[in-house]
Design a protein that fits this description.
The protein is mainly α and 112 residues long. It has one domain (3-100). It contains four helices and no strands. The chain has helices at residues 3-17, 22-27, 47-69, 73-100. Helix 3 runs antiparallel to helix 4. The protein starts with a helix and ends in a 12-residue tail after the last helix.
Length: 112
Amino acid sequence: MKYREFIVSISVATLIAVPVSEASAHRSKHGNHEPILTQPIANVENNYWFDYLSDIREAEHELTKDLRRATDEEDRRDAYEEYRNEIADANKDYRKEMRERGYRVGRVTVGN
């Protein structure tokens, strides 16, 4: 195994092994956000998927830090608003990259 492949393998294992953070546990209580993808689009694990996972973990980490520093309800609302924006941005960027590479981004709509 080459050195670069080894580093990527360790990074992927780290991302997958990290438990759901405190931020994730609180999010349903403080408003909804776009769903976080649990599988890559078209089951293709590429750099864009790993970047997406990294963006999600970073957003959760930032939310946790912001909540620890929050001194009032307004600070908490701001922290969750920033978190929702970061999740939406990560989803948009990942879907755009995959669409540009020809992978279909599925969406199911249920209605009358």
